[in-house]
Amino acid sequence: MVQAKPSMAEAAIRGSALTSAQTIVNKVAALAASLVLAKLLDPSDYGVAFTATTLGAFLFFLAPWVLNDLLVSRPKHFEAEAGTALAIGLATGIVLAGLMVAGIPWLRAIEPDSRAFPLLLAVAAARPIADAWMAVPWARLRLQLRYGRIAAIDGTMQLAATAGSVVLALMGAGPLALVLPPVLVLFAQGAGYWLSVRGEIPLRPDRSLYRGIAERFTVAAASQYLNNVVKVLELLLLALLGGPKSVGLFAFAFQLSSQANVVIANQVSGVIQPVLSHINDDPRRQFGAFLRALRLIGCVGVPISIVQAAAGVPAFRLLFGSKWDDAVPAFVALSVMQAFMFLATPIMTLLKAQGRFRAILSWQLVHIGAAAALIAALVTLGLEGVRAATDVLGATLSTEAAVPFAAAVGGAIVWGVGCPIALKIGARDAHGSWAECLLALALPWPGSIAVGVAVAFGPALTEPLIGQTAADCVALAMSAPAAVLGVMLAAAPDRQCRQDLQDLARRAWTAARRRAKPDAATR
């Protein structure tokens, strides 16, 4: 305990490495599964499945898992509030699930041609119960900085969900293969968390705390609800304006483009929030830790996103064939959007650690209004303008491709403009310099863009010499080294960022050697 305070940064780096490592393994498996699912399922299957899950995100206005963030933001009160938070979460989850099930007769009109849609809605309705079940033990593990245990549970369960989706698709389950496994795995994940903290959490609710926790939960859940709407806003608008195929193309592109963000930004967010919460009483130190995390995530996430966008065309040609050609433009635009979402993640985490859920609420309201207006305008009034702009760049879009691409472009613009605004909000109460934050935002872009341009134009230069397929293979093979080079170029101007990257690499190498030693001893 004596060393806990000075080792917070080390705990964050170690936790980030552990959680990101397990997620990388799972995302490699998920990519392989995506190749199989892309062959077995059609765009309309993806459209129906993601419409069902998107409706859940839209209708579940009080997400019970937010209690996890609420408890983490008040580490000194965990013992007193855990039982009451659990009771509030379970009650909320059951009510939300019941409301969605009761609404199925009306909701099925959104996809009247799909016989599977009511079943998908019923499965999606179980999500808030699973979220409530896992929130409290998850918060306990995060506050204890037990990242190894969290990584082991999450990694095993996510791998099970991936395998389950493939098995169900092979059995002919159609869109159910995309909806059922993730919900089942959440219940299993919660069971793993509870087993890890058995006997450590007081379960008896305190009636005197109900009102205070419920009020904080309502504000936090409302802000998270708006964040959920932000993440699925394009899908919601496409479901209304573009039809199931547009939703399916966008959903497939988004699922692939967001993999790096899930691996790095979301996992790191889960690690650094408890660390920032523990130093809430020292705003300057907290802001320094936040800025360090922002630089690190930006210098890793932005190059990966830009190289991913640049490699999109050859990757789709090689891996998916002509079946998913109309998803490629949306994938490229969404990959650029992911770069801004990388940068927004630590900002959101800082606000949660500060307990400033009302600030998050205001930010998300503005974001939703701006994004909805811009995306709707591009998809309806500006669609021909979008197609004309791409024609100038030498890329002719079909109508099917133009609709999800327009939605993706609108989302990317709003995220790009929203990041500096959110940063200003987050830096205010942390006594931080906005200019310093803007410099951290801008730091990774020059090197990332330079490497991305090289990857994007590589196939055009080599195709006359070796043919399209070979040129695509070379471009895809070079994308990973290019991303590493982009990370190095992005981090080069920042000494602390370089040091953090070296620490991560050193820890990963040490962990690999430790795992190899028992095997060598056995031999």
Give a summary of the structure in a few sentences:
By secondary structure, the chain is mostly helical.
Overview of this protein structure:
The protein is mainly alpha-helical. The protein has helices at 8-40, 43-59, 66-72, 78-102, 104-107, 117-125, 127-143, 147-170, 176-196, 210-241, 244-257, 259-278, 283-310, 312-319, 328-353, 357-380, 383-392, 399-428, 434-442, 445-466, 468-491, 495-522. Helix 2 runs parallel beside helix 6 (117-125). It starts with 7 loop residues before the first helix and ends with a helix.
Radius of gyration: 23 Å
* Overall geometry: globular
Question: How would you sum up the major sheet?
Answer: none
Q: Total helix count? A: 22
Instruction: Pick out the low-confidence regions.
Output: 1-7, 518-523
Secondary-structure element series: HHHHHHHHHHHHHHHHHHHHHH
Kindly name the structural category.
mainly alpha
- Helix content estimate: over 70%
State the end-to-end CA separation.
39 Å
Percent of sequence in beta strands:
under 5%
Salient structural properties:
mainly alpha; 22 helices; 523 residues; disordered N terminus
